[in-house]
């Protein structure tokens, strides 16, 4: 083969490689767009069911409580889909994917806890509201505690029986399944007891923070937050992204405040502290916005740390180029738990003030 033929052959191979890379990029981009659309549609459905199930005094839809309870059940079943997949991904970290019996047993146990707790919340809110209205903080706090104990007991008994006890396995699986369980229960709690706008506030805090931190990190990022845990995150992106995210959340609340007749009621449900003093509402909103944005970043880092611990890029490929359900829900689960805990403290302050 002559030198000219060798050069031409090399050039053709490079051209084929470039074309393959271009096709791969196009395919990846197409997959990301399609999955992104489905994710947005899913969040919209969650928000729509939350609006229709809203039983707070701040809602705009007049329906009987028993009808609203139907949409609350639909919301619970809708959230059950990612709940199952998220638990599947968590269990897959420890056990071989071919051992289907392990998955069926554990997911069945977690599912029973999920539906029992949510069924109790729906019954308490829509069918016997007078018996629980003043006791929500105490009751849900006890639910959180009991659920934590039950989930940890199920998980550790399972690990012991199937001889998978190691420090890494025990800590990782317990932490993830607990975040999944409490995270989804917190989302339901927020939608049912705090109303649709509180849920929108949560969704915005996660999605806006993720988007702005990524964009600012892309253009201005120089100093890595953690090269090992999450090499793509930078301090510049986190600080600038957090600042803009907090501003967006406050602007969102500002739009609600245009309706002067209902703004105090709606925003009071968001902050969990019932007051008509506008200054106090906005001070607490600033604090809450900072809290949500900070834990959105920390939640993302927590799940990134778990992935590095098990040396994986994504929790699964269920969502193609987006990775798995835990890759999409990581920050949302952590933020929901933090919001629920904060809300319980705020509600307890209300109870103390009433005495």
Mean pLDDT: 81
Low-confidence stretches: 4-8
Estimated structural class: mainly alpha
Main sheet record: 2 strands, antiparallel
What's the total helix number?
Answer: 11
Radius of gyration: 23 Å
Write out the strand line-up for the largest beta sheet, numbering strands in chain order. Answer: 1-2
Global outline: globular
Distance between the termini: 95 Å
Oligomer designation? single chain
**Which sequence of SSEs, written as H and E, runs from N to C?**
HHHHHHHEEHHHH
Quantity of strands, as a count: 2
Kindly describe this structure.
The chain has helices spanning 3-53, 65-92, 100-126, 129-132, 136-161, 167-194, 196-220, 235-256, 263-271, 278-309, 325-354, and strands at residues 224-226, 230-234. The relative contact order is 0.11. It is built from eleven helices and two strands. The chain has 355 residues and is an all-alpha fold. Strands 1-2 form a two-stranded antiparallel sheet. Strand 1 (224-226) and strand 2 (230-234) form a beta hairpin.
